[in-house]
Amino acid sequence: SQTIHQWPATLVQPVGSPLSLECTVEGTSNPNLYWYRQAAGRGLQLLFYSVGIGQISSEVPQNLSASRPQDRQFILSSKKLLLSDSGFYLCAWSKGLNTGELFFGEGSRLTVL
Amino acid sequence: AQKVTQAQTEISVVEKEDVTLDCVYETRDTTYYLFWYKQPPSGELVFLIRRNSFDEQNEISGRYSWNFQKSTSSFNFTITASQVVDSAVYFCALKSGGSNYKLTFGKGTLLTVNP
To answer: Which residues, 6+ apart, have CB-to-CB distance to B45 below 8 Å?
Structure first.
């Protein structure tokens, strides 16, 4: 069966520090991968998605970047964190062109102080 | 543009009550998919159901049921005989049939089931 893991689960970082959140999927190949952010108020915002190694699409201009160095690895990064980067970050994967359902990781809660 | 509206921000019920979570969507596509997700306090979103725009048949899974009505652009979710473990945020989401990547989520409904 397929599984998805994110780490770290919780992170407290000062403003201006770098960020690296990692996500790994197991049990499937060539998944579509996604990073979502859930800010206060619960809304889910798509940040990045990837349909293959090295292929990254950004949904919103921001302080963050994403990379996909391996088929089942997706990394969310920042060189210098802002207060507004605080939130709950969710990695997800999907399979196939039209099935659409996303399967989410456990989430990473980032607090920028 | 696609949009999903969950007008109920929070709902509180007593255990064993039935509760319906509303979802209204907007899309210009003729082919699309609708979803419900559950987010318990642990934070992980759990996939519950997917329906495509050509299948208006209602679905029941245990205590959960879904009512899809294209005429009113609604995809409502009912929990029968609610339990404390049903307490969570529930999200409705929409995906265009032409897009293989983007789900548009509603803002979610926080359901609290009290003992």
So the answer is: A90, A92, A102, A104, B37, B38, B39, B91
